[in-house]
Amino acid sequence: MIRPPRTAEALLSFFLPGGGIRETVLGDLHEMYVHRAAGPGGSRVRAGRWYWAQAVRLSATYGAKRLSGTRYRGFAPAPGPAEVRKTTTRGDGMVGLARQVRLSLRALIRSPGFTLPSLLILAIGMTGATAVFTVVDTVVFRPLDLPESHRLVIVCEDHPRMSGFCIASPSNAEDFRQGSSTLTELGIARGWPFTLTDDGGTEGVRGGLASAGFWRTVGARPVLGRIFTDEEYGPESDQVVLLSHAFWTSRYGGDESVVGRIVTLSGEAVEVVGVLPANFDLPWGFGEIEVWKPPHFTPFGEGIRRWRGFRAVGRLAEGASVAAASAELTGIYAGIGERSEEVNDEWRLRVEPLLQVVVGNTRPVMLAFLAAAGLLLLIVCANVANLLLARGLGRRQELAVRAAMGAGRTRLVREILTESMVLSGLAAALALVFATGAVRVLLAVAPPGIPRLDEVAMDGRVLLFTVLLSAIATTVFAALPALRVTAWDLGQALKGSARSGHLARSTRLQNGLVLAELALSVVLLSTAALLTRSFIEYLQWEPGFDREPLLAVSAFLDAGKYSSLEEFIPVLRQAEASMEAIPGVMAAATASAGPLFGGGDGATPFSVDGMAPAGPLPTARWYDVGPRYFETLGLPMVRGREFTEDDGPDAAAVAIVNESLAGRAWPDGNALGRVIRLPELERSFEVVGVVSDVQPIVPGVAPYPEVYWSNRQLGRMATFFLVRASGEPTTVAQAVVDAIEGVDPDASVGSPITLTRAAERELVEPRFQALILITFALAALVLSAVGVYAVVSYAVARRTREVGIRVALGARANDVVRLMARTSLTIVAVGVAIGLGGALLAGRLIQGLIPGVSPADPGSLAAGALILLLVAFAAVVVPARRATRVDPLEAMRVE
Amino acid sequence: MGSKTYLGELEQRVLWAVLRLDGEGYGTTILEALTKRSDRRVTPGAMYATLDRLEEKGMIQSRLADPEAGRGGRRKRYMTVTAEGRGALQRTREEWMRVWDGLDLVPGGNET
Prior knowledge:
The complex is a heterodimer.
Chain A: H1 6-15, H2 20-38, H3 44-67, H4 93-110, H5 112-141, E1 152-158, H6 170-179, E2 183-191, E3 194-198, E4 201-205, E5 207-210, H7 212-218, E6 224-225, E7 240-243, H8 245-252, E8 262-265, E9 268-275, E10 291-293, E11 311-316, H9 322-339, E12 348-353, H10 354-359, H11 362-394, H12 396-404, H13 409-445, H14 460-487, H15 490-494, H16 501-539, E13 550-556, H17 565-580, E14 585-591, E15 603-605, E16 607-608, E17 619-625, H18 629-633, E18 637-640, E19 654-658, H19 659-665, E20 675-678, E21 683-691, E22 706-710, E23 718-725, H20 733-743, E24 748-749, E25 753-754, H21 755-798, H22 800-808, H23 813-849, H24 858-884, H25 888-893
Parallel strand pairs in A: 5-10, 7-9, 17-22, 19-21
Antiparallel strand pairs in A: 1-11, 1-12, 2-5, 2-11, 3-4, 3-8, 6-9, 7-10, 8-9, 13-23, 13-24, 13-25, 14-23, 15-17, 16-20, 18-21, 19-22, 20-21
Helix pairs in contact in A: 1-3, 2-3, 4-13, 5-11, 5-13, 5-14, 6-9, 11-14, 11-16, 11-21, 13-14, 16-21, 16-23, 16-24, 17-20, 21-24, 23-24
Chain B: H1 9-21, H2 27-37, H3 44-56, E1 60-64, E2 77-81, H4 83-100
Antiparallel strand pairs in B: 1-2
Helix pairs in contact in B: 1-2, 1-3, 1-4
């Protein structure tokens, strides 16, 4: 018999309104289909395609009408040919839907054994997905909270030997600002610590330099006063400051009369002209800067063009693209290069969307979480599909009776689909409640430093996401069981036969779902195990020195007070001496940065004699350190000596390199006395010592080449003091701060931090990552255990009759269990095997996303697989054993 | 329905087809009539939407016949045009005649 495609018909039937419309429309289309398929020149394929097209179109039309609340009049159930009904305004289509929902609710309440687990399972999956989506949405997808942030770009000067850095010089930035038409505005900013003195005393403050253009670019609207003007740039005209909202509140108690007040900033009288808005969202830690001042130099002052120490941010003109801006600025940059040697051929220009720069590294991690949430959701769907399928199987007699009494198949399918939708709708509501709590938990355990995390909040978009999720879940887990259940010959089902071929198909479907569920769980479990292992490796970090007794504190000396290094060195020496005089302090030294403190100064290319001349130069991290630094740190010298006070401004320029650099630059092992050049910094040094490597805290990362020079030769007005205590370092912290202030009362001293505490801070992020994935993995484990258990025990129960016969014929319990276990465990094994393949793949992905994770850790893989195998084994053996204890006579009577 | 009801183009055509089939029109035959009389393709979706609308406006009435095997055991919905429908069709026709009256379309010329 020729008939239209069943699925298309079912789809259409679902959307058509009740009463006579569904029946007559389906009948008409049936006729048209038959005509097109079997009529003259007809083709079944073409007719099928046509039917699908009509079905989709009609479904959309009627579905939309139903959503918009249009009511359809119905037809009498059994109208005679002469019966003609007048138009009524009220029909039963919508009523039918509402009634169906009511019926579904009632049916769900009647079977709590099915409803509660399904609801919980669904809600758990959706909660995971929603909570993670909420965080990811804010951190990754939503634009920066600055006016029209999608138009903000960062302009970076780039050199092949320092690629990856994003820096700009004020002079070049000013040229861009004046010459560009693709950018409406451009400005520069950087951090610049100050000491602030007013009636409230002197305080070291987090400060910054920023041009007026910077504030216009980011769209700052001060809550009080004004931002800088273009004239306020350079010496004599820079005596104005902007305060951050937080600083204004904490230091001045939100006093509005602060605008116009004169305060002393690093020895200079300046006027407060404005207060920035609260929570003003600036990247690079600029949001934490308390006091902003215009640059104290003119944009084209001497040496300024090569001072590439600023961030240049621009705002794209309406309709201008990043590529257009990049092309235009590159042209301007080439023009600068023709006038000035300080921009040569090797310098390149890069323009990037600010958003991309800000979100940067966090994006891949967040996307990994999203993927994990997606996997969990898939497991959930498979699980609930299984539950629904089992429920459908259990109800097959009821369905058969109803079909026999005249309920159409479409009606039954509609019923099942409605039930699933009601279920997932309820679950979505539940998930939303759960997710609010979960987001709160996520924020509580999240490490600091994830950009924009403080802005995370559930909003309409997340709500929409949950609803979408519920719709997708419904389709996924309702479609399969619904089609399966009704695909039976219901008459067959009525006879109560469980041995039909359809049943075998359902079993296959169930097995397939279990297989998928297991495979996905293995992926999640072993990924979680990978991250856990990597976290444990973080914990076991052996840096190469003992961090317990160490304390670091930063000090910025007032640059205006010292005119030369000669004046400044005694201050450092004096401070070190008075620290070493503190009881409990064993040694003190200075360094611009070090492991766990200071964050590092950056990297620069280096070259040595005998190195291959072609290709980009290798890079090294550089630090300036004082005498006895390595002794204080406890990092052993491998060869040569430490810096001494004799390595002063007039002595030969000397450097210490670490083992990594020495091994790379001088493979012959003879580094002492050799010369290392840093072309970017225009410096070269004679190597006088080789120090052992500090192992990076990120597991599996090789130590970076490092070069140290003496701050007695090339020092800066800012340094960290590193102190080794004989006991608990916090006990000497205050005395150390006092020692610095005793030498220079104007010094801005930071908060002392022990290196133990600093190391803990480094661990927060891997802990967070491991925690999230472990949570997902545990949820996946529980869900797949439940899924496996449900399906296997159901399968075993179905074979009760067979077990009874076997036991009656004298089979031993163990044989029966083995028989039962064989099929189920095969499925489990296949699922786990597929999962292992997936886990290998996921491991490789994760490695690319999260530093410090090894891709394929056999231990982690085995652990993930083993846990699931054990669970599955229990799920098989327990019900199988129970089956053997059934009285054979009882068992035979089943069915 | 008030006398001010005018008909859209597709409504006119569907109404005309139902009228012409004289009580024997249902989905399949109406669509056939629509397609035969014009170059313009009418999809079942558009036709059903129009039929529903016309019925709601009281311009057509329908009745259900007996189930038929050739339709998957489903019934037909036969349509007839009501007096109101005839009136509206007539009114619309006259309205258009008035609009077109005195307008000469010269082939190739401007519509002046």
